[in-house]
Specification:
By secondary structure, the protein is an alpha+beta fold. 43% of the residues lie in helices and 25% in strands. The protein is built from 10 helices and 12 strands. The strands form 2 sheets. Strands 4, 5, 6, 7, 8, 9, 10, 11 and 12 form a 9-stranded antiparallel sheet that branches. The chain has a 3-stranded antiparallel sheet with strand order 1-3-2. A hairpin with a 6-residue loop joins β2 and β3. α5 (69-76) packs antiparallel against α6 (83-128). The longest helix has 46 residues, at 83-128. It is elongated.
Amino acid sequence: KENAMRKQQYSIGEMSQLCNVSKKALRFYDKIGLISSLRHDYNNYRMYTHDELLMVPVLKYYKQMGFKLDEMKDFIAGQNGNVYSSMRSAFEKKIGELQSAQVELRRCEESVRDWHNLIKEAELVIAEGVREVSVKYVEQVNLLYQEQPFDGDIKSAIINIHFMDYVEKTSNAITGPVYIRFSSLKDRMESRPQSVRIMQNVLMPCGGGGRVAFGGCMMASCYHIGALETIPETYDRFVSWVRRHGYTPGEACYERYVTDYWTTSNSDFHVTELLVKISRGGLEARAEEPDA
């Protein structure tokens, strides 16, 4: 009985039901010669042998491994000279492709997680109305950077065409918040043009370009909620607190854009962290220099 079953022919409907594969897929496999059907002269119906039936699980397994149909066809038939050599080459190529895909997937996941964390941070800051000034140790990170002039157009500084071009030319991919280092705290408070440094973290594996160390020191911190055009008001309160508590602010200041124009056009939901290096006893905080 078992041998009789193995000699049985199956209609396309039976194949579809037994193997849980669509008739459309079976027709396509037949068209490209991957699983060929028999045709009866009197009705031209597609019929399949037991061997063709058993080919479906094989194709499914290769598909699970990431092989495309044309790749399967090249070595499943076993007609390309040295069968094992052909299969080994195909598997080695596929391993390389999958490793590259894993790297890209990890980069995408890291970017999404970083952005998700920023959204959570902004949500909490707004919900709790966090506007107090604090002093904290900021962990050191190495950021990709580019020096640019700043003419007061903060939106163009954050969504920065020149910096994005630099990122692409240096074969980098960026993640997390944009940081801007304003060379003069005083000029920033008075909304005057000055030299700035655009900075952002890069995803691994990273490319070329300059890196700068940010953090690794005590800094005063304060959140600004809302439109960046009103940020001088927060700076006035921020710097007054710093000096009132006996700290000397550094010459430069930093803005970390938690949520901004990248996230939403509604400026009511923009959250910016203001940061400045501080010192005691009138000693000015030392500005960092680009890594060699």
